[in-house]
Design a protein that fits this description.
Length: 705
């Protein structure tokens, strides 16, 4: 791969060319303004950021969200997280090889100043959909609010989402792309004078005097004293233990979406996905939009847990999906070269006779999320009044987080005696609907009509979604009752007829509506489909493969026309001329090449099921699952003992990923967590220079604090 930046995209505008020079290992490279070091390195073909001092293993990124510290580099002499540190002109960046050497500080070279303090009625940690919605509600009530977020752009994961959102059109902007929802929520929160926002600011710790330590813009440590704390810090991605799981090229869906959708960097050629929830399915489609080949997806459960319409988009594009399969091993030296997968039995144990090996250069891990709840636990411990919203409260969709934040904001205003009105029961009910899991699948009921014009709705699962019902100018698409989880229906009417406006086709978040038009045709129909992949080379007259809802190829048909509706940016309408008896079955278009077949792997070679013990649980300290399992078998039920013996969670990330994995290991061994003692939570929760924590600075004699 020679071109590491995305130069065309069906949804996102292309950013200016790189204009900032920096040095990696004394080699000159170029980065874009405000680009993080990690993205700049990926854009220049660098995936290995250093080697671990314990075993010289290659290190790259995993979360790209400031949570794991695996991407540490030395920038201008300081160890920093590459994913959270922007490139500066002339910056010199080196791999983190071995342990950093601390500079000598002459006696008397440092002096200390009082730490600034700030009082506020409500402190909100997290500027995603929940935090911004809560700030808006509190702002309406005139409550003084300080919202802090560790990124330079507000919106949380919304800023990584290019697809149109599900949910309620009226309440949570369903039918609008996540990147645009983020802009709307930020503008609404900033409209209130009582709301103050600090970007690029980390919440670090909560203390017994109810103060919260904030590192503002990486340069000033401030103690904030709130009357009430709202934690809307979102979630962190779960890791997964398998041999080779720390190789460069194994990373989370959030990291992938950050590189591709935020920074327009093309991080790989051949992607393999582990996990069939919404996160993995959406990330897979984002890869296709960026021109990246998706080699396959494995899901350990018998069926993918995400929305069926997300799965349908992948299979219609030609991505093979292997349910009841799991990843066994990532293979490679300096980075991922291939993946080994196998079918699992009813107890989720791999069946070694089914082991297959597949070439890929990146493995995307999307096996669930854990709430960022350490601030909640600490606040409760010290008696600071605390509320939670969004994923920090309960893992759900971003649309649910918006309403969760609104409710939390209203409840806090009421607690402070500034409520404008009680929380409406309708809000509580809608929040529960937005949080609900996908319903059961129904058999597709295709219309048999061969006359007129009408939409065909290829969504066959109950999920909260209503944009098609609100966009139809003739009110011909309806949901039975008030529950937006019901599957919408096209209602034929003698009084009103479909006018073929294509608005429902253009707005559907699942790309699950087509329009079939028999007018002016005999024996054929014009079928119009939504398309959000790069199709710059597609033109009328070209043959294109059409598929049904499940991704089965039907036939190749000539393209009749390609157009966009005003007001529906990013969505193209591709129309094909199809035989009448096939028209309603057509649900998708396939422009990308199908994945190559998996190759058999000789299980008599160097693979055995015991290799799972070689998987790393603690990335920072390079502690394997086998080492931890041995201590569990010896009778240890206190994670603090495991920490003392193996240094689990004592690395730079502070246990943000490994501690939950250790708990899951206890459960896998049949030991209930009620019998397990957890280690205490101690400040600080996020790494920072000790000089800033001490509010130290150089005196006139110089010296490095």
């Amino acid at each position: 791969m020679s071109d590491y930046r995305i130069t065309t995209h069906p949804i996102l505008p292309i950013k200016p060319e790189p204009d900032i020079s920096f040095y990696w290992n004394n080699q000159k490279f170029f980065a874009k303004t405000d680009e993080m070091i990690s993205s700049a390195l990926f854009a220049n073909g660098i995936h290995t950021f250093g080697h671990h001092p314990k075993d010289n293993s290659p290190q790259g990124i995993f979360c790209a969200n400031g949570q794991c510290s695996q991407c540490m580099v030395i920038a201008d002499g300081l160890p920093v997280k590459a994913c959270m540190t922007p490139v500066k002109p002339g910056m010199r960046v080196y791999p983190a090889e071995g342990l950093p050497v601390l500079p000598d500080v002459p006696a008397g070279a440092v002096h200390y100043a009082p730490i600034p303090r700030k009082s506020v009625e409500v402190l909100i940690i997290g500027g995603g959909p929940a935090g911004l919605s809560a700030a808006q509600e509190l702002g309406k009530a005139g409550v003084s609010v300080l919202l802090v977020d560790d990124k330079d752009k507000l919106g949380g994961k919304l800023v990584l989402q290019t697809h149109r959102f599900f949910g309620s059109s009226e309440a949570v902007y369903a039918g609008t792309r996540g990147i645009d929802i983020a802009t709307k929520l930020e503008a609404q929160a900033r409209a209130y004078p009582s709301v103050e926002i600090w970007e690029n600011s980390n919440a670090l710790a909560i203390f017994e005097d109810h103060s919260v330590g904030i590192l503002r813009k990486g340069s000033q440590y401030v103690l904030v004293q709130p009357r009430v704390l709202l934690v809307a810090a979102g979630a962190r991605e779960r890791s997964l233990a398998f041999p080779g799981n720390t190789l460069p090229g194994v990373y989370g869906a959030g990291a992938f979406q950050t590189l591709v959708n935020r920074d327009l960097v093309r991080p790989c050629e051949n992607l393999f996905i582990v996990g069939g929830g919404n996160v993995g399915l959406i990330a897979g489609y984002h890869a296709i939009q960026a021109g990246i080949h998706v080699a396959g997806l494995v899901e350990a459960a018998p069926a993918c847990g995400g929305y069926r319409v997300h799965l349908d988009k992948l299979v219609r594009s030609g991505v093979p999906v292997f349910t009841s399969h799991t990843v066994l091993e990532a293979v490679g030296k300096e980075r991922v070269e291939k993946i080994r997968i196998a079918q699992v039995d009813g107890n989720f144990k791999p069946i070694l006779s089914t082991v297959r090996e597949y070439a890929c250069d990146t493995i995307l891990i999307a096996v669930g999320l854990d709430p960022v709840n350490e601030f909640i636990c600490k606040a409760e411990e010290v008696g600071l009044p605390v509320f939670s919203a969004g994923d920090a409260q309960e893992i759900a969709e971003a649309s649910a987080a918006i309403f969760s934040g609104r409710i939390a904001g209203a409840q806090i205003a009421e607690k402070l005696g500034k409520s404008l009105a009680p929380v409406p029961d309708a809000w509580i009910q809608l929040e529960e609907i937005l949080k609900s899991k996908p319903g059961a699948l129904r058999e597709e009921d295709l219309p048999a009509a061969h006359a007129g014009v009408f939409p065909v709705l290829h969504c066959n699962q109950e999920i909260p979604c209503d944009p098609c019902t609100t966009i139809c100018p003739k009110n011909l698409i309806q949901i039975n009752g008030q529950d937006i989880r019901k599957i919408p229906q096209f209602i034929r009417s003698e009084a009103e007829e479909c006018i073929g406006c294509l608005r429902c086709v253009s707005i559907c978040p699942g790309l699950a509506i087509t329009l079939v038009d028999f007018r002016k045709r005999v024996g054929t129909a014009l079928v119009s489909l939504p398309y959000e992949q790069e199709a710059s080379g597609l033109k009328p007259g070209d043959l294109i493969m059409v598929t049904d809802t499940s991704g089965t190829a039907l036939t190749s048909l000539p393209v009749h026309s390609i157009r966009k509706l005003p007001g529906f940016s990013g969505t193209q309408i591709v129309s094909v001329e199809a035989p009448a008896d096939m028209a309603s079955r057509i649900a998708g278009l396939r422009l990308i090449s199908s994945s190559e077949a998996l190759q058999s792997f000789d299980e008599t070679g160097d693979f055995s099921p015991d290799m799972a013990d070689d998987a790393y649980v603690c990335r920072c300290e390079r502690v394997t699952a086998g080492e931890i399992r041995q201590l569990i078998h010896s009778g240890i039920r206190d994670i603090n003992q495991i920490k003392a013996i193996l240094r689990v969670s004592m690395g730079a990330c502070g246990g943000k990923a490994c501690l939950n994995m250790v708990k899951r290991m206890y459960l896998q061994e049949g030991i209930p967590l009620s019998e397990v003692s957890e280690p205490p939570l101690r400040p600080v929760f996020v790494e920072m220079p000790i000089s800033l924590l001490a509010h130290a600075s150089r005196n006139s004699n110089g010296g490095a604090p």
